[in-house]
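Thread: Modeling a multi-component assembly for a lab meeting

Hi all, long-time lurker, first post. My supervisor asked me to bring a structural picture of a complex we are working on to next week's group meeting, and I have zero experience with this. I have the sequence lines for every component (1295 residues in total). Could someone generate the structure of the whole assembly? Inputs are pasted exactly as I received them:
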Amino acid sequence: MTETLLSVRDLRVSYKVGASRIDAVDGASFDVPRGTIVGLVGESGCGKTTIAKALTRVIADNASITGGQMMFEGRDLVSLSERQMNALRWREIAFIPQSAMNSLDPVYTVESQLNEVLRRRGGLGRREARKRCEELFELVGIDKGRLSDYPHQFSGGMRQRVAIALALALNPKLVIADEPVTALDVIVQRQILDQLRELQAALGISVIIVTHDISVVAYICDRTVVMYAGKVAEAGSMQATLTEPSHPYTMGLRNAFPDLQGAASGTLTPIEGAPPNLAFPPPGCRFAPRCPFVLETCRQVNPPLETVGPNHVAACHRAGEAVELRTQAARVDTWSGKVLA
Amino acid sequence: MIDQFTPLIEINAAQLHYRVGGAMSALRGNPPVVKAVDGVSIVIRRGESVGLLGESGCGKTSMGRLLLKLEDVTGGDILFDGQSLSTLKGADLKRYRSRAQFIFQNPFDAVNPRFTIRQTLSEPLENAGIPPSQRQDKIIAALELVRLSEPLQYLDRYPHQLSGGQLQRVVMARALILQPEFVVADEPVSMLDVSVRAGVLNVFRDVRDRLGLTAIYISHDLALVRYVCERTIVMYLGKVMEDGPTEDIVHEPLHPYAKALVAAVPVPHPDQSHDPLPIGRGAPDPRNPPSGCVFRDRCPYAFDRCAVEIPQLQQAGTRKVACHLFDEAN
Amino acid sequence: MPHLKAAISRTLQLALVLWAVVTILFLMFRLMPGNPMAAYIDPTFTLEQQQALMAQFGLDKPLWEQYFIYIGNLLQGELGQSFRYREPVATRIWALLPNTLILTFSSLILAYTFGILAGAYLAWKRGGVVENAAIPLVLTTRAMPEFWLGMVLLAIFSFNLGWFPAGGTRPAGASYDSLWALYTSREFLSYLALPALTLAIYSQGLPLLLMRSNMLDVMKEDFVTMARIKGLSNWTVVVRHAARNALLPVMTSFAIAVGYQLQGNVVVESVFSWPGLGRELVNAVSASDYPLAQGAFLMIAVVVILMNLIADLLYALLDPRISHA
Amino acid sequence: MLDATIGKRPGFVRRVFQSLRLPLNDPFAVFGLSIYGLFVLTAIFADQIAPYDPTEILYTPDYMLAADLRPGEDGHILGTTSLGRDIFSQIVHGSRSALLIGLTAAFMVALIGSIVGVVSGYFRGWIDIVLMRLADIAFGIPFLPFVIVLAAFLQPSIWNVVIAMALVLWRDTARVIRSQVLTLRSRGYVDAARVAGSSDMKIILRHIAPNILPMSFLYGSIAIGWAILTEASISFLGFGDPQSISWGYMLQDAFASQALAKQAYYWFVPPGVCIILVVSAGFFITRGYENILFPKLGR
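Re: Modeling a multi-component assembly
Sure thing. I ran the full set together rather than chain by chain. Output:
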């Protein structure tokens, strides 16, 4: 039942900045099972968006995939020729961008942009394409009379629906959504997430949602991949990672969010410090400088991803003590700057 | 001492209407107008913390700019300590500038990138006539207030050498350096990374309590507002929809819009309701708001009266609500 | 129809500008040193002619009254009498305008066709050797005095190689039934070639640089990245998306360029003895033929302002963000 | 003062220089700046460099008019004109009027344009409307015809070009600077300065001007080119200053003296090349600036 659609192993993506090389993604591994929504969560600069782009192999001019595999239905996307990769783009892997405003061409109508994909990439005839356009608009709940409108004539939420329609046009197996609701107001945000979930379940596709917001993950995802400074810190089912986190970073993130359902008088706890500069990453665990549970080995040896539960992995030397650390992490003074032994 | 219950700020039917389009469109008559703030009345007591909550385009940021006299009202009036802001000039304006301060949304935009932290923090001191010899001490004190450890090391750095969290603390230090009575914070953590947000919020809360500040916290996020404010004002398309104690609004919102807003707030828990929101699809269009109640086109409870009559803010229990559903109650 | 309103308001604005320019012109010619009547009356005119003109332009009246008479005359297309040609200025100018326009448009169409293609190509192949050589070259052509370029081309292709005639629009003594017959004759092309080429070489830099930098900007836009993620062909990405968007401002710059070119024509027409408005202006000023100079100046200004308006309207028309607001 | 801190403050000149942000790492810009340097030196030391008075009518050793000599003949590096004047000396002296016109016109254009742009963009409202309508009018005036008409009414002088540029060409600079100021004005730190109690004047001097200065300089260097080209055109058309030797005057002289038919390339090519060098130097510097000011345009 949990057949794997995509399996990323030791993925490494590097940017050339001046003379130096920055590994924005430094050996990331995770799986996307068929028919699930996977949340790729982390702060800015953790490499989550780079992974999303790398999966389409359309990356910045100064970036390159320098290692690892991306096994998609038995094919390694890293080693496919550009021609083979292009054949696969959008037909099997589609993309929903953060800002639909900037990602729709302003000078063409929405229908013309849907048509472009349907006819040039899907091989549909004029009449079939028209029918499919109407179908897609119905699917995402926009009046088909608006097909002939230009992108700027839609509101932010509507544009995001157009972007979803566009992504679903060729019935892809995997849809990558890069911060799909970040630019939207809470109400529209919720409506778009509902729609995504509904369509995903109805069509049985897999979705990767890239986000900085744990709430989005909690609302919609089946699985979570937590990233920190170019590496996967923890990955597992959404339930497990959020209720029983095994990496101190995940534990810290949970404390840092205000919670409308929680008690009123709670105090939020920040994680002191800032993520490391990836041009000069610390030698051991990348979270070590901010971790309240740091050990001497943490500063020297990079912890590998290890199984901590069913389908649940974490990259922490003290993952075995997770139960104890979780209780400590819930206390405010644990994080108050003084790093404990 | 000062009576804690005297209002510090009285906003009386404040309006901020923008003309869109060039000067020529004004000559043609009936120019298109955006009502960023449209008849807002709020009274804020000394020492109160008020959250201005709403989606983009609801007028919350414009409200903040009016309060800081970065814009002038196009109608109505705002009184600060009994004095009208629109007629403030010269020395009075200067005094006001040291009493009311602003914390900006994007710290990287709020400081001049060519200025060192010292230069940035000196500017308000200079304008207040603090002699150069006393400035460094005040700067250090302000930086300590916002809990930047070892403040000396930051003085001669440039903004790009600081992280977002550190810079936002500098922005807060600048706002606090003249010991104001009143602070408006416009989404001060929305540009920051999740792991450092809590730190900035905590500093804000602590400093406010310690200095006894009157504070307005502008945000689209009810969870954040709840963390810092005891009172919340929900705005929609330039108008106040609901105004009352934050906990009451969180637990039992009255206005249909507030209901939808509360239901939509994301929570970081696996177990949560996935019920559809009690609101229609679509988005507010500030240029073409509906007649009557501006929310009626998305409101599931709208009835005939909503289209013809603009609902006025009226008392409903602990709160004030602008909705015809509560008309009978009075 | 909000854009119709905007178009009307812009038209009114520019009508106001035209009025201001007309007023400036009036003041310049009336307040110049010397006899204020010299603007309209040549001492060699017969006494009757002089009196007729005095009456027509109200030259014996106070300045403000003269101003209204002047505006009234303008509105009727009355520009006065040329000293040299002894014929109405308007007639003379209408006769010269086609020559100037055909030179301007032929050179600009040449320049824009080349500039747009070359600019798009340079943006596509950015960072290469071609670009490093081409950009300084293009900047150099922008730095050339147009008339000097014309001189060099004349010296080489006309005086040395003898491929093209040295000036004018037609062989000596040749006559044509109509302007149309002239413009479609083969000889005309050989007369047009050098001046048009001169102006085209100078003008191609603007569309080229504009197209290139717009393309480079657009190529960084999200929708271009998205087009790649969609697996569209490179050609589709570059032409259908990048070039189409980059072209917008270049097209509107064409109208502005017509206005600029008209000013540049003043010198180039002189080098090639091209009987156009610019050369006429120079000759009129040299010969103190003030009515003619005034008329030629006004005509050029009208075209410049008209082209500014067309540029604005074109932009609104071509950009769906404005036309479908 | 511009600087908020006491203690170590760099000299005013140095600070202005720094805020110009000269593009010294762009090879084109450095090339442009060196041409400017060479050009200025030539203008200053013209009397020392030029072997003859540029207006002196020269004679060969056998007392013949030294007319139409080819380059190298009788020691004339670039030959002589039909009137027997030394072309090289004219080229050298031509740099003087070019420098004079270029710098003064550029200064006027940059100054007027910047002030109008800053005032218009910062204060907005009716003053903005008035100034921008004035700019519209300036855009409606055909520049070169305007200079010609002006030159016809005023005494022939090289200042006509400067006056005309000051009257008309500020428009481009003003518009660009205005839109730049509008952007700057919406930056948070300008609001922050207002909230901190800074006066408009202080905000303009401290927060706006340093960001505008490179832009003014950029438009100034474009204006240098425009001024030299305009002066050349005007002189070529015969409306120039007959007293001063300029490159445009030389070209007119050559054109009127049948230099084209005589195939005297040594006569009319060098002045053109000089103009191109100086004007393109401005463009190259501009390009270097654009990479600094608008990094998005970069390759």
